[in-house]
Amino acid sequence: MKKIGKTLLLAVLAMMLALPAMAEDITFDGQVTAAYARDVYTSFTGTIDQVDVIPGDPVEADTPVAGLRTTKVYAEVSGTVVAVPAQVGDSVESVTTRYGAPMYIDDGVHYTVAASGEGSKAYDSVESRRVQPGETVYLRSRSDDSHTGTGLITATDGSSYTVEVTEGVFTSGETVNVYRDAAFTESQRIGRGAIANKSPEAVTATGRVVSLAVNVGDTVQRGDLLMETLEGGMNGGSMSSQLLSGVQGVVAEVLVAQGDSVAEGARIASIWPAEAMQIEALIPESDLAAVAVGDAVSITFDWNQDDAQPLQGTVTGIAFAADSESTSTCYTATIAFTPDESVRYGMNVTVAPAN
Question: Is 314 domain-assigned?
Fold first, then answer.
C-alpha cells in the first residue's frame, strides 16, 4: 500500500509541475482587424462621375475616393469678365437674388436699339419691312448726323426687332434710323428706334459653386469654361466635387459605381483607419480559463513565424457570446497592439500568453 501511495503522490506532483508548461503551450489563431471604420459621405446630390479606389487600397487623408459629375457653365459670349459675385461654396440662387447673376461678362456691346418698321419708320416697300436675325445694319441719329454706327439684328418679333450696336458712340434715349447700307440710302431704311444702354451679359447657372475657372479682368471666348456647380450641399460639407477619404488607412468598402445617382448625405465608402488596427483571436471554450482581460500576449505573424520578433499586445475584451461562424464553440478576444510598417489588415497571426 505504501508503494501505491507513493506512486500516486509522484504522479500528482508531476501533473502539477506540468500545468505551467501546458499553459505556455496554449496558442490561438487570430487576424488583424479594424476596431472601427470611418465612413465617407457626399455633401451633394448628383451622379458619380468616377470611382478612384477599390477595397484594399491604401489611402491618405486627402486621397480622392470618388468624384461627382459637375454642371459646367460656359461663356455664351466673348468678352471680359467684369464681376464675379459668386464664390466657391455659394448658392447660385442666393447670389442671383442679391446681385442679379453669379457672373457678368462685358461683350463690348454697350448699346441696343429696340427698333420697329411699322408705318413711316421704314421705307414703304415689302423688302424694307422684312428683316432677319444676323443682318448687319447701319445707324444714324435723327438729331445729329455725326452720330453714326453699325449694328447687328439679334432678334425679331413681327415688325419689331432688336439691334446690338457694335460700332459707334451714341447717347441713351437718342432716336436713330436703321439702314441696310452704309450710305444711309432712303430706300434702304428698314426702321427706327431708341438707343438704350446695354448692361454686361449676365451668366446663368443653378446649384452651388464648387469651382471658378475665371477671375475679374479675364478675357474669355464664347464656349470657355466659367464655373462648375453641383446641386445640394450640407452645412459643413466639403465644397468640392472630389470626395476625399478624410483619414489615412485602407479602403474597406466602396458602395457606389460610375453613373450611380446619389443623394445629399449618402454613404459612399468606408475606411479602416491606420490607428484602428487590432487583433481578433478565437478562444475555444476549453481554454477560456487561461485568458483574461488585461493579460499580456505575444503575437506572431504567420507569414514570418521563423524570423520575426513577436509583437506584444494586451487582451482588451472577450466576447460573452460564442462566435457564430466557428465550427466549434469559440469566443472572440480583442487584443490591442502597436503595429509596425509590415502589418496589414487581414493578416493571420498566432497569439500566445506572454512569458
Answer: yes
Among residues 62, 174, 69, the alpha carbon closest in space to that of 115 is found at: 174
95 and 216 co-located in one domain = yes
How many Å apart are CA 163 and CA 137, to the nearest integer? 8
- pTM for this predicted structure: 0.66
Asked if residues 335 and 313 have their Cβ atoms less than 8 Å apart, the reply is: yes
Q: Do residue 193 and residue 121 come from a single domain?
A: yes
pLDDT at 17: 44
Q: Rounded to whole angstroms, how far apart are CA atoms 290 and 288?
A: 5
Provide the b/e sequence for 223-247 (b: ≥16 CB within 10 Å): eeebbbbbebbeeebbbbbbbbbbb
Which of these, 256, 263, 295, lies nearest to 279 by C-alpha position? 295
How much is the pLDDT for 32? Answer: 97
State the DSSP code for 141: E
Residue range of the domain that includes 57? 38-69+234-274
- 193 lies in a domain? yes
Region at 249 (left for phi over 0; alpha for psi -120 to 50; beta for the rest) = left
List of the chain residues with pLDDT < 50: 1-5, 8-23, 235
* pLDDT for the residue numbered 326: 83
Burial (CB < 10 A; 0-12, 13-18, 19+), residue 26, is: middle
* Pair 82, 225 in one domain: yes
219 with 86, same domain: the answer is: yes
The C-alpha atoms of residue 295 and residue 59 are separated, in whole angstroms, by 33
Q: What is the CATH number of the domain that holds 242?
A: 2.40.50.100
